[in-house]
Design goal:
Layout lengths: L1 H17 L13 E10 L5 E2 L7 E4 L3 E6 L2 E12 L3 H5 L10 E5 L8 E6 L2 E6 L8 E9 L3
Antiparallel strand pairs: 1-2, 1-3, 1-9, 3-4, 4-5, 5-6, 6-7, 7-8, 8-9
Length: 147
């Protein structure tokens, strides 16, 4: 009888440990050093930034540092979560499969949602509501992997 119970318990452990599904947001890596390349906010035309501009985001496993003109202006922690509501939130038509995750800085769930897309060493942050000229589209380029 003991052998039967042990066998059942081991089988249950194997089945349940193999059935855990990794969160999609956790598979996206933003760890590294990113430098601002482009920003478009509200009705202001898109501004391009040259390499070495000092506007940097540094992400570790769960923390971040934000630099403006080479000076640290903010640091804290972040969380990535899956969220497919980008079109309703920002008021744009977004290609399927893009901006399906968002970043939450410092456990601030009350602020506007910031959606992220990582592709080809570029980090794109999308937030606000574009139809009311309140949207923000900010593009960073990875300059260091930090892994």
């Amino acid at each position: 009888m003991k052998y039967f119970i042990v066998t059942i318990c081991l089988a249950a452990i194997i089945v349940f440990s193999g059935s855990c599904k990794k969160d999609v947001a956790n598979s996206i890596s933003i760890i590294g050093t990113w430098e601002l390349r482009q920003a478009q906010n509200g009705m202001i035309p898109t501004i391009d930034y040259s390499p070495g501009n000092g506007n940097i985001l540094i992400f570790s496993e769960s923390g971040y540092e934000k630099y403006a003109n080479g000076n640290l202006i903010k640091s804290g922690h972040y969380t990535l979560v899956r969220d497919v509501s980008v079109e309703a939130v920002v008021g744009l038509v977004v290609p399927s499969g893009q901006f399906t995750n968002r970043i939450i800085f410092d456990t601030d769930f009350a602020s506007s949602k910031i959606f992220i897309e990582v592709s080809n060493n570029r980090l794109n942050l999308l937030s606000g509501f574009f139809p009311l000229d309140g949207g923000s589209n900010v593009l960073y380029e990875r300059i260091e992997n930090n892994r």
